[in-house]
Each structure stands twice: as C-alpha cells, then as structure tokens.
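user:
I keep going back and forth on a fold encoding question. Separate attempts, laid side by side, tell us more than any discussion would. Would you put together a sequence-and-structure record for a protein of your own picking? Write it directly below this note and I will take it from there.

assistant:
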Amino acid sequence: MSQTTEPKPAAPGVARANQAVRQRFPFDDTQDLDDARRGFMGTARDSVVRDAEGRAVWDLDAYGFLDQDCPDTANPSLWRQSRLCSDHGLFEVTEGIYQVRGFDLSNMTIVEGERGVLVIDPLLCAETAAAGLALYRGHRGDRPVTGVLYTHSHADHFGGVRGVVPDEEVAAGVPVLAPEGFLEHAVSENVYAGTAMNRRAAYMYGAALPKGPRGQIGAGLGQTTATGAVGLIPPTKDITRTGQTETVDGIRMVFQLTPGTEAPAELNIHFPDHAALCMAENATHNLHNLLTLRGAQVRDPRIWARYLTEAVDLFADSSDLAFASHHWPVWGRDRVVRFLSEQRDLYAYLHDQTLRMLNQGLTGPEIAELIEMPPALERAWHTHGYYGSVSHNTKAVYQRYLGWFDGNPAHLWEHPPVESARRYVEFMGGADEVLRRARQSFADGDFRWVVQVVHHVLFADPDNAAARELQADALEQLGYGSENGTWRNFFLMGALELRHGSVGTPASTVAPDLLAALTLDQLLDALAIRVDGPRSWDADITVRWNVADGDRVTLRLCNGVLTHVTGTGPAAADPDVEISLTEADLRAVLLGVVSPADLAARSGVKVSGDVGRLTELLGHLSDPDPDFAVVTP
C-alpha cells in the first residue's frame, strides 16, 4: 500500500453498497426537502461567523459541496440528510414563530411577543447566536429580547445565551425559563466527565475533519459544533410540572416535562395561540441516541416513548404544526400525529425487542446484529440512524438493564487492552503475519475485521507504521459506507489521527460560566474527581472554611479520598488550617485563580494555622488530559 496520508477513494465493495442504498429507499420523496425550505426568508451576507479576535467559529458555506451528486465515498442516505441539514438562514414556521437554522448544530427559535421576542435555545456559542439574532432583526426589525427559554440541559441549547441577552438585562427582569433540574444537570454533565466527553465529541462531530466528500459531511442531527465562546446564564424561572402555564411578553405557553428522555432535564412546549408544538429534542428527523458516543448516562427509551404518547394526547388535537430544536418542522395535524407516533414506536420497539432478546440470553453485540426494524418504520426517513443507530442504541438498552458484563465469566477478568493486544499478536504469529492476513481481508472488503484485528497490532506496537496505515485505510472505508453521521466522523477521525497524530479537541464545554454555575457542593465534588489517589494514600490533611454569610465547610483528604462536610457534626474533623473568607474567595482558591500563599493578603480573609497544608492538599490534584489518545494506547 502507498504511504500517502491523504484520504483515499472508496473501495469497490463500499461503492457497490452505497449504490445499493439508492435502490432501497425512496429518494424521489421530496417532502422533507419541501419542508426544510418552507418559509425561507434569507440568510446572512457574510458566510463566516467570527469571534472577537477574528477567528472563524462557523462557516455557512462550508457544506456547499453537498449540492453535487452523492459520490461513492458517502452513504447516499446520510448525504441526503446532510444536504437537508446544511440549509441555513431564517425561516418562518408560522406567523409569529421563526427559526434560525444551519448556524450551529442546533436551531434557535424566536417567538414574537407584544414588545419583543422570546428566544428558545440560543445555540452553542455566543457568536453564532448573535449572528442568528442579527439575521432575524434584519428581516423583522430590531425587537428586544424579552425572554429566554432553554428546552433542556445540553450545551448546544444554552451555550450561546450571551449572544442574545446580556447579564444585566436578565438581572433587570428578563426571564430565563428552564425545566426543573436544568442547572444541576447542565453543569454536572459538562464538568464531572467534561474533559473525556469533549475529547470524544471531537471524534463524534468531526469538527477538525476537512469538509468534503471524503471528509466530514455532517453529524445527522446537524452539521457539526461551532467553536466559539460557550456561556451560561442560570434560569430565573423553573418549570416544575406538566400542565404548568406561563406567559412571557404576551406569549402563552403550556409545558410538558419530559425528564429522562433525550436529556435528564427537558420539556416540550405548546403555544395555544399559534397551534404550534415545540418538541425540544424529543422528536427530530432521525433516530436519536440512547447513549451518545461522546458519553453520557444511558437514556430511558421506555419513558421516552411514554412521553411521546402523552404529547399526542395533550396537544395533537390543537397543533397544526410541530417543530424541534434540530431539523425542520412538520405541518398538518395528521402528519404531526403520524410523526410523533412513529417516533414513539421507534424507541418503544428498540426497548422492548432488546429486553425480549436479552431475556433469551443474547448479549448486547448479538442483539445489535440480529435486531431488525419493522418495514413501516424503516420506510420513514425520520427514523433512520443518522445520529443514534440501531446498533449502538440496542447496546445502550442492554447496558441500562444489565451493565457492562455479559454474564460470561471469560469476560469477567480480561487483560487490559495493551496486555491483551501483545498476547493476541504473539498467538497469531506476530505483527507481520497479522498484517499479511489483514491486507488480504482488506482486499476482500472485510474492513470491519481489519479494524478489529489490526487494533491488536497497534496496541501491542503503536509505532508500527504499516499497522497505522492499514488501520487508517480500513477505518476510512467504514466511514464512507456509514449511514450514521457520528459513526462516519468517528471512523474518519480515527483515520486522520492515525495519519497525522492528535488534532486535539476543537471545542470545550468546560467553560467559565459552567464552572461558576456549580454549587459549592458540586465544585468540591469536581475537585474530588481530580485527586491522584495512589499519590495521596498517606496524606491526611484537613482544611476548614468559614464562609461569610454561608456554612462552615470542612475539607479532608484521607485515604486518597477528598470529602467535605457542611456544618459542625462529628464528621467534621479538627482542622490543620482554618480560613474565614467569602464564597467568592473560596471559589477563586479552588479554581486556581488565587494561590493559598496569597490568601492572607486579601481583604477580609483570616487564616489560622499552617496555610501550607492547603497548598499540600491542592498539590494532590491532577489535571485532566484534553488530548488523550483514542486510537492508540
């Protein structure tokens, strides 16, 4: 094989498989295309959205190549979906409701009120949100933002809030609405495991991949993630129950809480004066994730299906259209009911059939290979696995009920990856023999097996250039054939990093606003995650914080565990050092903004005891690695 590091053509078997997709599905059905373009009012004149330093964070024209016919290096079904998602601009959903689409991974919805506008889900970053709002105002006038609503606790639905409303206007009374539990889940998900999630999200969305027929063409749910400034303004009004009604700037809303569906805190919204239903991210034009490839808690498809049934019962008779925080709306009551019902059946089927088969003794990978979707669902474009997949969603259901262990004791105590790989390669006759056989498998078109077996050579010898090249080539072919946008991105990112080395993490949601929004309990829990346990086994350090206008907090590192106790109970051990300060100063120390040595000099801070013990305690914390290896050890 050649030593080129550039993407290669599609293998003949991949090209044939992609051609077969054209014959299998109704590509002459233009309903989605008509809906995606309905109500188009215009788009931005400047195609590049930039941050304050002039760095491009979003390019509206990056996906213009999707206007051409689908090449052999892409699954035609995914190409179709990406083409639909690449349409960008301002769209009228119905009189008084508008959407900015194609300016980020998600949609921003704008509802006109009596004095201004309610902004729903202000995208992932401030720059794209500001550009979207400017586009709206260019067509509809310079209306003020009189309210903000977050439908759920994922960053692409709140991170751009400062691009549409400043903090001082919220402090002056502009309401920010969100489902109950929003703040807790928004900050904990993005901080506790945020470093690992962001690294894996770099693979999932492929933001670092070149855009083009042999590179990144989309992520199914949208195109990719913007790379601007992520922020958070905490909600000022919680939605706590289904049936709760609120009026913001004359806009009447009826809410349905849907916790545990696509997000731990989520809601749907009915607008009775517009006969419109917002489904947040609970019903979009694809099969969603039950366990996202970037990592998250496993979602509950059983309750997800039930909430979709409830949405039909509550709102279908009074909804002439349904729209969501991704993709394009559905118009017409009959179509809305059919759309929501098919989405409901999709998640219920995956749940029930996975449970049926696991109770027959099948494991997650076996179920993923055997499960077949009902033909009526498979014929509906919006049930296709562009973002979630039937394969990894069935494994997620298995994990939700039975966990990582498949019950076979042979899998209970396996060697870790590198040690297993060395043994496998030795058993198989050495790296040269494995690669010889793998090249034959590549020639036969068995790329899935090539990836599986060459992985062992790479983990046994990550510097083996021939293994890196063959693995990259095989991953690339799997990407070319994938209907799932995130699978394609994972495969192609693996190939890219094998050829060029780590490209890092283009976007991070571990942003200052999210850290600031952590409760003190959450911040201390986040610190505990960073303790280097083995290096701290012999440490026994206790620090007491007397927080002005707050509680007394005792922090202790012992047995490699960092615990904190609020109050004066028996669990609060005697301190080595006691510090009286404001909560702002405490946060500054814990976040590394202020050093322990500088504490005593700060106004209002009192230190009793050896402040060096605090320095010693903080020295036991380790820093996460945002660029850890993924396809090599």
Remarks:
- The first helix runs from residue 12 to 24.
